[in-house]
Specification:
single chain; 178 residues; 17-stranded parallel β-sheet; 0% helix
Length: 178
């Protein structure tokens, strides 16, 4: 049909989990059908986001998991089927994004933007094919970034790097396209 004959809708509630608090563990939750899945705001510190399942987001260019702060860990999360979403976005310092599964987000799979001392390690990123469909990105003023032991498949661009840290360390990553 024609575009005019279709209705586009977005969820009423903005985030499944929204937190500004430090020293928090967000673990074992199922988040469905929001604009944002798990959203950390106001630069908290010592936060762990672990073993959560975020799916079916319908955002307007937002995030399945957004980390902004100091000493943050995203580990063992599953992010899938999220329209117009970044899988995991991180900014701040001492950030680790490890052993997550990110698939079928229509923007970046994992994106570091303004991270000092960060690691993107052991993740599986699959089927990232929309606008800005970079599987793993380190953009804008990152410093000392390790990107290692990730498996990337079916992505338009496996890795993109831009900004002040033009030389992140990339080690033992596997990229496949099928």
């Amino acid at each position: 049909g024609t575009p005019a004959s279709h209705t586009i809708s977005y969820p009423v509630l903005d985030a499944g989990i929204y937190s500004t608090k430090s020293n928090v563990v967000i673990e074992g939750l199922v988040v469905r059908a929001f604009n944002n899945g798990i959203y950390l705001d106001n630069s908290p510190s010592n936060v762990i986001v672990r073993n959560n399942d975020v799916k079916y987001l319908k955002s307007n260019d937002w995030y399945a998991i957004r980390l902004q702060g100091t000493d943050l860990l995203a580990e063992g999360n599953t992010v899938t089927d999220s329209q117009r979403s970044v899988g995991i976005l991180a900014g701040g310092s001492n950030i680790i994004v490890r052993n997550n599964y990110v698939s079928r987000t229509s923007r970046q799979g994992i994106w570091f933007m303004g991270v000092n001392y960060g690691q993107i390690v052991g993740n599986i990123v699959d089927d990232i094919r929309g606008t800005h469909s970079n599987a793993v990105s380190a953009y804008l003023s990152n410093k000392d970034i390790l990107i290692a032991n990730n498996k990337i498949s079916r992505a338009q661009n496996a890795f993109t790097v831009h900004g002040d840290d033009a030389n992140p360390t990339l080690v033992n990553n596997v990229t496949l396209y099928n």
